[in-house]
Amino acid sequence: MAVKVQYPGAGEALLSDLNQLSRFARLLGPLVPGMDIKPLITELRDRVSEELDYELEAQAQREHAEEFADDPDVLVPGVVHQSDQVLVTEWIDGIPLADVISDGTAEQRDRAGQLLARFLFSGPARTGLLHADPHPGNFRLVPVGGTGADPDGGGRRERVGRTMAARCPGLRHRGPAARRAARDDR
């Protein structure tokens, strides 16, 4: 199991700090002439609020898991439990992407980059969601099947495992039926 815990009071403290910052927006204006700082701070506060919402995060995780369930190149762990300050998902064994970047072979780095790009660029069209935190800690390179054998005989085959997703306000959400129809058209 992978467990993400929000420290008690941390979310409220962060939002309170952002509210205080918005009060000083008028003072910040002269530092960047011609830019209205207040809408930027409002947007930042809204995005931080979403990041602190584990129910929203769990729903995005479930939607990604459903959409990518049969994908040969992407593995999304299921949500086991979610509450206001705790998110529990299935654990994914594999090589952390940070280790692939620093110590992997050129072939592993190339494969990881291809898989990550495919996932990140296809996700919005497939789910209506955007993976908004694509740092290496959120991904692992996972051998396919028990042997990791490539069905084309090219040696080991791997896929990318990912952890978290977030809603992207600019994208239209597509329901499961529309996503299945789009998959069938590929």
Describe the structure.
It is a single chain. This protein has 186 residues and is an alpha+beta fold. The chain has a domain at 93-185. It has seven helices and nine strands. It has a four-stranded mixed beta sheet. A three-stranded antiparallel beta sheet has the order 1-4-3, with helices on one face. α1 (10-23) runs antiparallel to α3. The longest helix has 22 residues, at 106-127. The two termini are 34 Å apart.
Task: Give the helix tally.
Answer: 7
Estimate the helix proportion, in percent.
40-55%
| Low-pLDDT ranges | 146-156, 163-179
- Report the C-alpha radius of gyration, rounded: 20 Å
How many angstroms separate the termini?
34 Å
Shape descriptor: globular
Strand order of the largest sheet: 2-8-7-5
Would you tell me the structural class of the helices and strands? alpha+beta
